[in-house]
């Protein structure tokens, strides 16, 4: 790597007034052809390029981006990292990602501030408890750390929570993944960008894709605002625009793009250490290192590419937060924004070959893409390099929608009897 | 002497109402009409806070919502609030505020060590370090977290209430300065329904700070007063002071936060603290004004350095004179107006330092004529003074504004006023998705193309002179009323006023100093987050070129002020570095809220029990008075079990279950969804939505049905009864009642409009009481004289109508327990009476009310599934072994999906029963099953336990499970590997444990 | 929050409505004659258009009737509403990339 970051380099550069830091990444013009072009310089796309270079020795790679790198969902999510998924396929994929997270700052030589302060999922009724138990058991047998907390233990782990929660949604228990936590989202994109760039990957920003060059069913390149870029293989990783890009390549996806919003409060001194999630009242919350409460809201239910959410969703989310944390009612919302999530019918991603030979797609992460970033890039790089999925993502192909082998992470959303 | 800071007369404060308040533990006095900031300045206090990163002493910079520094902790727990802008906080008697983010005090703050170490803490330093050893990040982070944050969150439940209200209007005017008032007047004169929202407690906007302005020859504030009288008298106009229009959503929907009682000494108990206004406006006029930009010069952050316009506000509106000897630093004509005001107030103007070569403009000429010392083509290149500025150094600057061309000269002062031009408040316009355009002449981003029915007027639209504001305001009012169908015929004469703006100006984004940037002193761009021009330059050096990258890397504009003063300066500095024009760099996205908004108003009254409706059956009161414990099922609150005396849950449930099989149980089943289906094609609808056939169901008979999604997965189940030729009653599970009705309606309306069927939800019209057990028929017979109950007359899956306990009733012979059961439907209002009659009559059979838990055990003994427990959206009828109910001949929703390749795989998870080796051991629900227990994970799982109970009737535990290929494995053993390391071995069986022939059921 | 004009009730707040996704997807008459791939296409594949999108809404807290709308999924403008079973009005596509 061209220049290692460390306390020593910081001291050294302080002596020269920080005037000589090298660029974190170059801003090159695109070459006329590459072995592999990755469309989309979000966390997943940059990670894919990085692992193509590192794991597969493929360094003749360009990552092209319509805007600025990390400017989509990577820079808009609530940064939760966990791997306590129900189904084997998901648990193994996310757990692989989590293991990569655990060494990521060192690996990238960029502090992504991955902080394992624990992720708690609350149960508010008997049905929740049953599902929680099922998931905890499945997690443990999949090698994913997961434990049950009684209400008392919940209170000890997160003292600001109100177990009675106004009486409407009392907390009956929780699952806890201690290895879960949060990371600094921008740093993930920047860290991967810098590390990929150091391995020779060209990151080309402000370069929208206008079409794909396909000859007799095989990908030949990408048409961009900066001209045609030839490529042997092309990977699409464009959360929020997967259907649009797939459409350019001539196929459809089982994806719906929905607005998802999040918000932060003004910064305050540490008050909540872990991540708290509640499915029943649609809210999740953590506190950033800067001190802001970071709150994830629900999706608007209609197709939307507007990168903005609507007021009713904010109202619903903050009502839930005020219920679980009545002492936050006087806190104030500082910033509220939206992203576009590409959702699949089974709430699981697609990491797959496509009907076009040499064209691969990685999409459909819904609200859960950030936590998978390293693992997603890792398996997608494998899929592209080998022209076949890794066992970890074999279950996440487009073909599952034909066979019916869905990985339905909605779980038992229905409450019946 | 405090008096020195308050002018003897003038201002819009009420000198007859002195108010006491405390700041950092000391008592002070102010007046009604003060903000905390003006009261502090009136007491000679400038140092009010410490900055986020370097803990530098900071004073009051502004007089409005843009304040980056003067943010304080207000009140005591549980009513404490962090990060309150002192510049907007109206003073009330007894107010308590303190500086935050400093220890032990704002005067002496140990965190200030960071300022000494600042060379080690450039933008993004944390990305480059704290990585070794990797296990230590969490330890480093602990200290980082403690050091970050500003104020403190409240420590207890908020005792105050919040409210929400919806409003519709023809024209919403945001901002009650001259433009907003003119717009509201014009629109209302045409008859339009107008809402005028103003963030300040007083209407008038900039005119409150400009006593010399006149309108139609009279003091401008007289015009304001007249306007408010006229608007106040108009019943179609609503005036909303203290209301922050903070978000502009799609389709002209705006959210506004009103401070209802905070400014009141006596707070009427019934009023909420704050209120959320949700306004749908046909047209919106944005008259949101403009915010002054500071100049970015070396060490521009000391207490006593403030915006020129803010100073005029303190002087003219609050009659405060926060200094004796001032230096004014400007790049435009407007600040000369402040200099003239200073002189009039008796403050010594030590120098006007002007970046321009030859000042001209109205105020410059007046200042020159008044003999004020003016230094043209000069810059402030440094300041001195730790807790209050006491000296500036000025030096000549080159024509291009980039270099210092001569030696510096020190000027003593206790006040520095800076003006770098104005930023129109385009936040809401931008939130509405309107585009912005750079105006080079005025040096600001202005509204360009609106995306909605939006009109911008006044300073937020680039009209900085009063006459232009009034003209634009009136025109916007007329233009907004017209499409709302109100033609303004009599807008009134255009008010006459002078029209002077702050131009001419020259735009210098970064004021040079005598040392290279970052070598000595700091040029602050974002004062709250301590982002300097050197930080911006560092980001560029490191390749962070997009303004969004720069913002995120340096955190400029991400403080509680959201960069209201700093953002355009940051863009200007970046543009200069990159050799681009400002619009080429672009603006970062304006995001709601305009200023921070309390969480509580989004919840409003929807807190505690009102967060979500609780649905209760008509019999609920009986359950409560008879000691039931409840469980939540969807929104319903259902009896879970009825403990007697000191019974444990287990004991109570065992007793209830046993009673049902032994004698008689009674269940409140009113929560089951009920859909009344009428029409000649009703049977055809059922054929299409259920897996089984319905054409041959006779009147008076019931049938169980399984409903799938089009993906082939089980969605719901229930019994449907044919009540008449074209009349059916469908029941659904409790939780799915609404979604099943929607599902049916959707298919009917969108795919099968040719079917003549009408659906009505009747869930709440009927109470349902289920009697179950060997004595059910006997008891029921005692309560009816017009329903024949014999097995021949009312067989299993039959229905009869008549009266029960004198109440008109439908009696269904259907069973979810496997016992002879009757479900009695009566009009909801009779539900409690029926229940009580049955319970009284049933005493001789020891009738036992049972709850959902006993119901679960009873049905599990029979192997009946519960949708949502045995199914999870990934289970087909075939997986449940319910092929018998899936028609081979007709089509139905979901059928085709059952024939996909994966559905036929032998290793799909299938419903089975499980019997533990130790009959006393109950498998935990949710336990995962393995063929072989390995020493450590991962362990391949082959299924999981969906339901598990101790069965008193079988005298042992039973469980239902979904197991891969389970149907072919009856008799085999597998293991539940539990979280505590324990293993429970069990045998796979069929899922029916009791009375597989159904003799009890039919008996 | 959108203001949606129900063809039967007039303009109402978005919160009164439920969303039904893409319009004009007809259920195949003879599903059993379709290949798994064709069935998957009907069942799961979406146009998910960025631009003018024809979609279904239900006035669930009003007249409880379904109708179609043409909406720009970028600007969220509702360009037309029309009844189920009728043809969409002719609208110019809007190209967003």
Secondary-structure map with pairings?
The complex is a heterotrimer of chains A (417), B (1003) and C (97).
Chain A: H1 7-15, E1 33-39, H2 43-56, E2 61-64, E3 80-81, H3 88-102, H4 104-108, E4 119-123, H5 126-141, E5 147-149, H6 151-157, E6 173-177, E7 181-182, H7 185-198, E8 202-204, E9 209-215, E10 218-224, E11 227-236, H8 242-249, E12 256-265, E13 275-278, E14 283-287, E15 293-299, H9 311-324, E16 332-343, E17 350-353, E18 359-363, H10 369-386, H11 400-403
Parallel strand pairs in A: 1-2, 1-11, 2-8, 4-13, 11-18
Antiparallel strand pairs in A: 3-7, 4-6, 5-6, 9-10, 10-11, 12-15, 12-16, 13-14, 14-15, 17-18
Helix pairs in contact in A: 2-7, 2-10, 3-10
Chain B: E1 14-23, E2 26-32, H1 36-42, E3 49-50, E4 57-58, E5 71-74, E6 81-85, E7 95-98, H2 113-116, H3 125-128, H4 137-147, E8 162-174, H5 178-189, E9 194-197, E10 214-215, E11 218-219, H6 220-233, E12 237-240, E13 243-249, E14 253-259, E15 274-286, E16 290-292, E17 305-307, H7 308-316, E18 325-330, H8 334-344, E19 348-354, H9 362-369, E20 374-376, E21 378-384, E22 391-396, E23 409-412, E24 415-419, E25 422-424, H10 427-431, E26 436-439, E27 444-447, E28 454-456, H11 466-481, E29 524-526, E30 531-532, H12 533-541, H13 547-554, H14 567-578, H15 582-585, E31 597-598, H16 599-603, H17 620-625, E32 629-633, E33 636-641, H18 649-662, E34 665-668, E35 673-678, H19 682-689, E36 702-708, E37 714-724, E38 727-732, H20 737-750, E39 758-761, E40 766-772, H21 776-783, E41 799-804, E42 807-812, E43 821-827, H22 831-841, E44 848-849, H23 852-861, E45 909-916, E46 928-930, E47 943-951, E48 956-964, E49 973-977, E50 983-989, H24 999-1002
Parallel strand pairs in B: 1-7, 8-9, 8-15, 9-12, 15-28, 17-24, 18-19, 18-24, 19-20, 34-44
Antiparallel strand pairs in B: 1-2, 3-4, 5-6, 5-7, 10-11, 13-14, 14-15, 16-25, 21-22, 22-23, 26-27, 29-30, 32-33, 34-40, 35-38, 35-39, 36-37, 37-38, 40-43, 41-42, 42-43, 45-48, 45-50, 46-47, 46-49, 47-48, 49-50
Helix pairs in contact in B: 5-6, 5-11, 7-8, 8-9, 12-13, 12-14, 18-23
Chain C: E1 3-6, E2 10-13, E3 18-22, H1 36-44, E4 52-58, E5 66-72, E6 78-83
Antiparallel strand pairs in C: 1-2, 3-4, 4-5, 5-6
């Amino acid at each position: 790597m061209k220049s290692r970051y460390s306390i020593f380099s910081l001291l050294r550069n302080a002596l020269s007034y920080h005037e000589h830091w090298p660029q974190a990444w170059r801003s090159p013009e695109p070459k006329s052809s590459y072995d592999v072009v990755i469309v989309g310089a979000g966390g997943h796309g940059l990670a894919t390029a990085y692992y193509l270079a590192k794991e597969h020795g493929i360094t003749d790679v360009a990552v092209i981006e319509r805007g600025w790198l990390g400017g989509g969902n990577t820079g808009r999510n609530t940064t939760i990292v966990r791997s306590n998924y129900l189904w084997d396929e998901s648990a193994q994929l996310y757990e692989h990602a989590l293991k990569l997270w655990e060494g990521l700052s060192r690996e990238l030589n960029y502090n992504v501030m991955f902080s394992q302060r624990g992720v708690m999922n609350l149960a508010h009724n008997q049905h929740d408890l049953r599902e929680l138990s099922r998931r905890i058991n499945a997690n443990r047998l999949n090698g994913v750390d997961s434990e049950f907390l009684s209400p008392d233990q919940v209170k000890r782990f997160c003292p600001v929570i109100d177990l009675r929660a106004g009486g409407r949604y009392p907390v009956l228990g929780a699952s806890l993944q201690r290895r879960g936590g949060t990371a600094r989202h921008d740093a993930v994109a920047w860290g991967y960008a810098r590390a990929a760039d150091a391995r020779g990957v060209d990151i080309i920003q402000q370069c929208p894709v206008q079409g794909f060059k396909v000859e007799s069913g095989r990908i030949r390149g990408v048409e961009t605002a900066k001209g045609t870029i030839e490529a042997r293989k092309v990977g699409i990783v464009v959360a929020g625009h997967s259907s649009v890009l797939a459409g350019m390549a001539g196929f459809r996806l089982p994806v719906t793009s929905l607005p998802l919003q999040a918000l932060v409060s003004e910064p305050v001194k540490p008050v909540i250490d872990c991540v708290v999630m509640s499915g029943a009242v649609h809210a999740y919350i953590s506190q950033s290192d800067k001190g802001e409460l970071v709150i994830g809201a629900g999706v608007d239910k209609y197709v939307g590419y507007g990168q903005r959410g609507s007021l009713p969703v904010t109202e619903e989310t903050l009502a839930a937060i005020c219920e679980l944390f009545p002492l936050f009612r006087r806190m104030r919302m500082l910033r509220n924004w939206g992203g576009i999530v590409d959702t699949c019918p089974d709430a699981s991603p697609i990491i797959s070959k496509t009907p076009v030979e040499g064209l691969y797609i990685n999409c459909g992460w819904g609200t859960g893409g950030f936590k998978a970033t390293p693992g997603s890039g890792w398996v997608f790089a494998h899929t592209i390099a080998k022209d076949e999925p890794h066992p970890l993502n074999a279950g996440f192909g487009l073909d599952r929608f034909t066979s019916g082998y869905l990985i339905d992470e909605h779980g038992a959303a229905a409450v019946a009897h | 002497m405090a008096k020195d800071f308050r002018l003897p007369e003038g201002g819009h404060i009420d000198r007859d109402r002195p108010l006491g308040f405390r700041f950092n533990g000391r008592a002070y006095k102010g007046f009604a009409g003060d903000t905390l900031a003006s009261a502090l300045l009136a007491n000679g206090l400038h140092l009010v806070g410490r900055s986020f990163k370097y803990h530098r002493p900071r004073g009051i910079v502004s007089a409005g919502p843009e304040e980056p520094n003067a943010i304080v902790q207000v009140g005591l727990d549980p009513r404490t609030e962090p990060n309150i802008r002192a510049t907007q906080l109206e003073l009330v008697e007894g107010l308590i505020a303190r500086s935050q983010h400093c220890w032990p005090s704002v005067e002496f703050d140990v965190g200030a060590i960071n300022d000494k170490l600042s060379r080690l803490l450039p933008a993004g330093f944390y990305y480059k370090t704290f990585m070794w050893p990797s296990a230590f990040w969490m330890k480093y982070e602990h200290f980082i977290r403690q050091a970050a944050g500003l104020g403190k969150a409240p420590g207890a439940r908020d005792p105050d209430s919040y409210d929400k209200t919806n409003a519709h209007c023809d024209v919403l005017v945001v901002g009650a300065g001259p433009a907003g008032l003119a717009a509201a007047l014009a629109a209302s004169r045409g008859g339009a329904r107008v809402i005028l929202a103003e963030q300040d407690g007083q209407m008038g906007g900039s005119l409150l700070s400009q006593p010399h302005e006149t309108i139609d020859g009279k003091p401008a504030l007289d015009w304001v007063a007249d306007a408010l009288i006229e608007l106040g008298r108009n019943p179609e106009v609503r005036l909303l002071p203290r209301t922050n229009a903070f978000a502009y959503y799609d389709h002209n929907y705006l959210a506004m936060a009103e401070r209802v009682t905070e400014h009141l000494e006596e707070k009427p108990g019934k009023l909420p603290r704050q209120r959320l206004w949700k306004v749908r406006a046909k047209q919106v006029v944005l008259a949101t004004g403009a915010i002054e930009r500071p100049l970015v010069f070396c060490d521009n952050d000391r207490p006593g350095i403030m915006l020129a316009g803010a100073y005029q506000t303190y002087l003219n509106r609050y009659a405060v004179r926060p200094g004796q000897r001032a230096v004014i630093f400007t790049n435009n004509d407007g600040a000369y107006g402040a200099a003239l005001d200073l002189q009039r107030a008796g403050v010594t103007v030590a120098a006007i330092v002007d970046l321009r070569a030859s000042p001209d403009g109205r105020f410059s000429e007046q200042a020159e004529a008044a003999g004020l010392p003016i230094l043209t083509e000069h810059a402030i290149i440094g300041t001195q003074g730790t807790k209050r500025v006491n000296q500036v150094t000025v030096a000549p600057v080159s024509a291009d504004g980039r270099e210092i061309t001569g030696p510096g000269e020190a000027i003593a002062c206790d006040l520095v006023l800076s003006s770098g031009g104005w930023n129109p408040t385009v936040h809401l316009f931008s939130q509405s998705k309107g585009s912005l355009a750079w105006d080079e002449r005025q040096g600001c981003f202005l509204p360009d193309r609106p995306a909605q029915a939006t009109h911008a007027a006044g300073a937020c639209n680039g009209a900085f002179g009063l006459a232009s504001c009034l003209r634009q305001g009136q025109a916007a009012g007329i233009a907004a009323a017209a499409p709302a169908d109100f033609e303004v015929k009599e807008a009134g004469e255009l008010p006459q006023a002078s029209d002077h703006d702050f131009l001419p100006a020259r735009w210098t984004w970064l004021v040079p100093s005598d040392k290279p940037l970052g070598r000595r002193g700091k040029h602050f761009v974002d004062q709250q987050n301590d982002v300097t021009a050197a930080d911006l330059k560092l980001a560029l050096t490191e390749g962070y070129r997009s303004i969004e990258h720069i913002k995120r890397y340096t955190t400029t504009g991400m403080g509680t002020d959201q960069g209201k003063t700093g953002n355009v300066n940051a863009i200007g500095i970046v543009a200069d570095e990159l050799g681009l024009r400002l619009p080429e760099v672009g603006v970062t996205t304006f995001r709601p809220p305009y200023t921070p908004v309390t969480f509580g108003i989004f919840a409003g009254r929807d807190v505690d029990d009102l967060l979500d409706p609780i649905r209760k059956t008509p019999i609920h009161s009986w359950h409560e008075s008879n000691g039931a414990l409840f469980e939540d099922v969807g929104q319903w609150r259902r009896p879970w079990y009825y403990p007697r005396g000191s019974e444990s849950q287990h004991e109570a449930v065992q007793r209830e279950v046993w009673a049902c099989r032994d004698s008689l149980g009674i269940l409140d089943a009113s929560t089951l969804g009920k859909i009344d289906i009428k029409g000649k094609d009703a049977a055809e609808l059922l054929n299409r939505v259920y897996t089984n056939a319905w054409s041959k169901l006779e009147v008076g008979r019931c049938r169980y049905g399984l409903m799938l999604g089009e993906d082939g997965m089980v969605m719901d189940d229930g019994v449907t009864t044919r009540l008449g030729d074209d009349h059916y009653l469908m029941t659904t599970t409790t939780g799915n009642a609404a979604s099943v009705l929607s599902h049916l309606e959707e298919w009917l309306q969108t795919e099968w409009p040719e079917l003549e069927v009408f659906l009505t939800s009747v869930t709440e019209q009927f109470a349902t009481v289920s009697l179950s057990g060997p004595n059910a028929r006997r008891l029921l017979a005692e309560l009816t004289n017009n329903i024949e109950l014999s097995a021949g007359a009312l067989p299993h899956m039959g229905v009869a109508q008549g009266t029960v306990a004198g109440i008109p009733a439908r009696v269904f012979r259907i069973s979810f327990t496997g016992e002879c059961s009757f479900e009695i439907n009566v009009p909801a209002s009779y539900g409690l009476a029926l229940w009580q009659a049955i319970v009284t009559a049933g005493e001789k059979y020891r009738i036992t009310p049972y709850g959902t838990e006993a119901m679960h055990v009873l049905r599990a003994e029979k192997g009946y599934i519960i949708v949502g427990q045995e199914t999870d959206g990934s289970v087909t009828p075939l997986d449940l072994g319910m092929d018998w109910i899936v028609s081979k001949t007709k089509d139905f929703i979901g059928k085709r999906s059952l024939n996909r390749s994966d559905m036929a795989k032998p290793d799909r998870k299938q419903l089975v029963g499980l019997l533990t080796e130790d009959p006393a051991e109950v498998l935990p629900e949710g336990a995962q099953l393995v063929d072989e227990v390995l020493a450590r994970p991962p362990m391949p799982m082959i299924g999981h336990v969906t339901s598990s109970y101790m069965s008193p009737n079988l005298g042992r535990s039973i469980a239902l499970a979904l197991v891969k290929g389970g149907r072919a494995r009856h008799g085999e053993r597998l293991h539940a590997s539990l979280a505590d390391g324990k293993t429970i071995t069990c045998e796979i069986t069929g899922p029916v444990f009791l009375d597989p022939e159904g003799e009890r059921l039919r008996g | 929050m959108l203001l949606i004009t129900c063809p039967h009730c007039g303009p109402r707040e978005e919160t009164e409505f439920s969303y039904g996704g893409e319009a004009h997807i007809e259920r195949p008459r003879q599903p059993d004659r379709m290949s798994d791939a064709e069935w998957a296409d009907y069942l799961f594949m979406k146009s998910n258009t960025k631009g003018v999108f024809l979609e279904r809404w239900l006035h669930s807290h009003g007249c409880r009737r379904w109708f179609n709308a043409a909406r720009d999924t970028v600007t969220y403008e509702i360009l037309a509403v029309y009844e189920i079973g009728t043809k969409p009005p002719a609208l110019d596509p809007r190209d967003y990339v």
